[in-house]
Amino acid sequence: MPKRLLYTLLLIMAALAACTSTENTAPGGDILAPLPTDSGQSADVENLPTLTELIAADPELVFFASGLNSVGLTDDLQNGGPFTVFAMSNVAFSTTGLIVSQADPALLGSIMDTHVVNGAFAEADLLASGSVVPLAGGQLPISQAENGMKVWYAPLRGEGRPASNGMLYVIDTMLLPPETGPEMSMWGVLQADGRFTRFISAIEGTAVMGTLRFSEAIDAVLAPTDEAFANLPANVAEFLENDPFAMEFVVTFHLLAPDGWPQDADLTTADMAGMAEIPTKVPVHGGVGFGFEKLAVNSTEEGLRIGEALVITGDMDATNGSVHAIDTVLIPQLLLEDIQ
Questions:
Q1: Segment 163-204, tens digit of pLDDT
Q2: Where do the domains of the chain lie?
Q3: Residues 278, 225, 325, CA angle at the centre, nearest 5°?
Q4: I want to staple 285 with a disulfide (CB 3.0 to 4.6 A). Which of 69, 134, 180, 333 is the partner?
């Protein structure tokens, strides 16, 4: 069986077996936004549908349309503008685990505002600008990726669609706005710290991002610092860089939920120090169905060691778990045979 397929199947099975569920600001930089253009619209712009009409007519944007309606943006996108909208597909909502009808109104409003920009920007204008400012504030960087353009970490899917009052782009990833205030989710704690940019980049846009932001399914995250990634052997770093499935596997190895149920208990350093080993969500080397790989726990003169990693900053409290900074990237045994 191909290794990539194996990793994917193992991740799915591990998640099911563990009974889990599914701002830092965006990168900075000067804003060089051009004046809104006609965005490639036809001269007879009045014959084009509005942004609201475009969104309502697309069955893949049902949840996004519901979100717009819930926060009062539907009328703005019908009668106002011009706007550029990065519309989250149904896939984005499902992957992240956000349910519009159950979301906190203030949070939902901030999320929806992050996907709407004043002005109508064609793709060339977006790329030339380098970044744009959403209604929520801050900046959304625009970049050229190998397979197309990206807004922040989200690839644009297909070409932009002109409307009578702007431009519509579809993305399959939710753009999460910064968290503010003294209480943050584990995702917010990771982003606010500043030492985990490499770890964060491996999580952005995935189901793990939604879990760390909205769910209580994970009790703790062992977060490798940027220095930990920099200290990886060259062959390991190259392997992970070129294989996103393997990187996802490694990320999963750092998510701990040993109690299984209930899904609301933090896993502190004191808790871990009382354990001989901690089960992970990665199946043991040699096959599926025989348990999960465990990390040995040792209290040393240096501090608490989890596997080969030293906890350098522990017990960073979040609203849905704990974050523990570690000095080493942990690699599952299942991957080691593939790294040369």
A1: 999 999 999 999 999 898 889 999 999 999 999 999 999 999
A2: 3-22+181-336, 45-171
A3: 45
A4: 333
Spatial CA neighbour of 47 closest among 174, 173, 164, 144: 164
Could you give the dihedral angle defined by the CA atoms of residues 246, 251, 252 and 256, in that order, rounded to the nearest 10 degrees? Answer: 160
CA distance 190 to 323: 8
The pLDDT, as a whole number, for residue 264 is 65
Indicate the pTM of the whole model: 0.84
Q: Check: CB of residue 159 under 8 Å from CB of residue 149.
A: no
8 Å CB contact between 23 and 176: yes
> The domain 3-22+181-336 is classified under which CATH number: 3.30.1490.180, 3.40.47.10, 2.40.160.60, 2.30.180.10?
2.30.180.10
- Per the CB < 8 A criterion, the answer to whether 292 and 14 are in contact is yes
CB 175 within 8 A of CB 152: yes
Please give the CATH topology (third level) of the domain spanning 45-171: FAS1 domain (2.30.180)
The pLDDT tens digits of the residues spanning 57-74 come to 999 999 999 999 999 999
DSSP state of 160: E
Structure tokens at 256: 């701990």
Retrieve residue 280's tokens.
């992970």
